[in-house]
Every structure is written in structure tokens, then in C-alpha cells.
Design a protein that fits this description.
- Keywords: GTP-binding, Nucleotide-binding.
- One of its GO terms (cellular component) is membrane.
- The protein is α/β, with parallel strands linked by helices and 203 residues long.
- It has helices at residues 35-44, 106-110, 112-123, 150-160, 175-202, and strands spanning 2-5, 21-28, 56-65, 68-77, 96-102, 133-138, 164-166.
- It has a single domain (2-202), classed as 3-Layer(aba) Sandwich (Rossmann fold), CATH 3.40.50.
Length: 203
Amino acid sequence: MAYPVARGVHPTTGSFLSEGKLRKLAVIGPKCVGKSSIILRFIENTFEEGYTPTIEDLFLVSTNVDGTAFNCELLDSAGQDDVSTYGAQLTIGIRGYLIVFSVRDRETFDLIRPVNQNLLVSLGGPATHEVPRVLVGNQIDAAGERKVSTEEAQALARELRIPYMECSALSGEGIQDVFHSLLREVEGTAKVRKKEKKKCVIS
């Protein structure tokens, strides 16, 4: 179940789920890659034709990953380019990021490195490379129009040290998997940090 929330309004967990871990996630990437469509397919299992530029929208959705319930706030961001900066809305409180490009538009793929770098710079701190992220290639339904191969995208993901997944907002293929993969990354990072904190206390 999902509810769109007015821009700038911070929901409370009690307003949409009785139990579950609260996780705020952001979907970022260049313009026209289907970020909004990916979110709508995940939360409502619908697809809307046409393109309407997103300013910023926040959605609430409940999901279950490996037996654990999550209350997710999904931030649908405006499109980023190689000079975009990231303000408080895209950095404070965000636990993980889907970085999306279109497999049928090489220019959007070429923008992933600067988009990722700008994100890490905006987040700051020595451990920014550990921020949970998943690289996502959207629009795999358009096989005949594909301009970026799976192998190329996997190589970039290895370079960035993050997972790579593919999906289609049009057909729904892989949509749930990309969000669940990000939540697993978020939880895995949290466990590592918890262990490191315990070691510091003991020492």
C-alpha cells in the first residue's frame, strides 16, 4: 500500500504502517530515465505513458524483504546531470539510493559517474563510499533499441563498488528486485557499522 505525500511533509510511521523498520530511500539519476515510473510500478503496479518532469515527490510504501517488514519513504527526485548538486532533501536521513539510467540512452549511462561522484561529495565524510547504492538499468523491454550492454553496466558497477540490476517499469520485470536489493544493502551496511561500533567500545 502506498500514499503520495505532499512535498515537504514528513510522514510518521503510524500514519501508514503499524510495524516495520522505517527506511528513507531516494531514486536519483539523469532526466527521462523512468525514475517516477519505477516508483509507481513498485508501489501501485501501474505504468503511465508520457513524461512529466518531476520536481520532487515523496511516497510511502510497505514491503517485506526476507521476512522483515519495512516502512519505506521513497523520494522521487528531479533529474540530475553532471553538474547537479544535492541539497538536504537528498542527503539528510536518506539510507540508500537507486541510481538509474536508461539502457537505450547512452548519454544517461555516461552521466552515472558524475552523478555518483556529486552524490558522494554532497554527503561528505570519510565513509561515503559505503553509502548503500544500487545501479539500475531501466527500459530493458526495448531490447531492439538497447544502447548499453549488461556487461558494460556491470563493469561500471564494479568500478563504483555497488550492485547492478536491470528492470522495466513498462512490464514490471525486476522492479521489486531493485528495491529489495537496495534494502538488503542498507541492512547489510547497518549491521557492519553496528559491529564496528561494538569493537570500538570494547577496545
